[in-house]
Amino acid sequence: MNRRPTGRDVAERAGVSQATVSLVFSGSAAASHRVSGATRERVLAAAAELGYAPQAAGRQLRLGRTGMLLLAVPNILGPFFARVLAGAQTEAAGPAGDGGLSVVVSSAWDHAALARAARGGQYDGLLVCSPDDRQLGGDLPDDVPVVYLDADPSLSAGHPRRRTQQLDVGAGMAAAVGHLRELGHQRLGHLRSVESAHTFRARQAGFEAAAAGAEVVEVGVSVNGGLDAAREAARTLLGPATGRPRAVVCDDDVVAAGVYHVAAELGLRIPEDLSVVGIDNIVAAPLFAPALTTVDLPGERLGAAGVRLLAGLGAGADEAVPEPEPLPTYLVVRGSTGR
């Protein structure tokens, strides 16, 4: 074959279903009860002939259930969450599409809905991304692995089948503020998220530490409110009542887009009259005019890391999975900032 063989190729060669191939390679106790010895040997022989090796995540998960993972995000329209989903899907599918796992995404959830999904047996594991604290409460079933992404590490503390993959968003925010101060800006505007989530508390802490000694004007904004909410907050920040700062830090890139809109309404030039920094580095950030200086949050890496952690937490895992280090973030300097 001129490509890597997949589980489907093995199934066709052995004359069985793809589900049977997945079960044979799952390592689960159910395999010995549901697949005869003769069928198992036929599958293994076909795999050997083709040079097939199952993808690691699918093999390690070993739950013998649905092959489905649930990714819960606060806002399915948020561009950052599209990056997380892309990374999770790629990791779940494997390099040749033979990972045996699929990712379902949902943003219409609260804790009760998440608990029902976990108890219903539909999903082999849950990825919960950037959860709002008000959505969480009580306990999820202990037998379902859960990985929290860009979240408070206390959510997984002490639980053998929970882990948290953080992003170093505080350092990213500090880099953004430090960049503006190096350019000479000592009066900073901050469009601060009002959402109750660990990721925004971390951004706020990073901002406050880096902005110490500077004059700061803050206006709250709902990052889940989209462009309309961003424009409304930007009008307040850039209006005469605030004394109009000449540099603005935004808690995400969609909020930064709202600043661009309002700056145009007011006849302000970016960056000559107003420097703007965002956070996320969404796909559209280089398309802003001028291109947006922003903190890159590696959404694809975050989603992929979550799937790998779920694989390690799956039933039958022989070793404890350590709590991972935060993924690094970095500032991407483009044309929206100046002296």
UniProtKB/TrEMBL annotation:
Give residue ranges for domain HTH lacI-type. 5-63
**Which UniProt keywords are given for this protein, alphabetically ordered?**
DNA-binding, Transcription, Transcription regulation
Q: What Gene Ontology molecular-function terms does this entry list?
A: DNA-binding transcription factor activity; transcription cis-regulatory region binding
**Gene3D superfamilies from the UniProt entry:** 3.40.50.2300, lambda repressor-like DNA-binding domains (1.10.260.40)
Q: Which InterPro entries match?
A: HTH_LacI (IPR000843), LacI/GalR-like_sensor (IPR046335), Lambda_DNA-bd_dom_sf (IPR010982), Peripla_BP_I (IPR028082)
Q: Does the keyword Transport apply?
A: no
Pfam families in alphabetical order? LacI (PF00356), Peripla_BP_3 (PF13377)
Q: Which PANTHER family match?
A: LACI-RELATED TRANSCRIPTIONAL REPRESSOR (PTHR30146), TRANSCRIPTIONAL REGULATORY PROTEIN (PTHR30146:SF138)
Q: Chaperone: present as a keyword of the record?
A: no
State what protein this is by name: LacI family transcriptional regulator
Q: Which domain of life is it from?
A: Bacteria
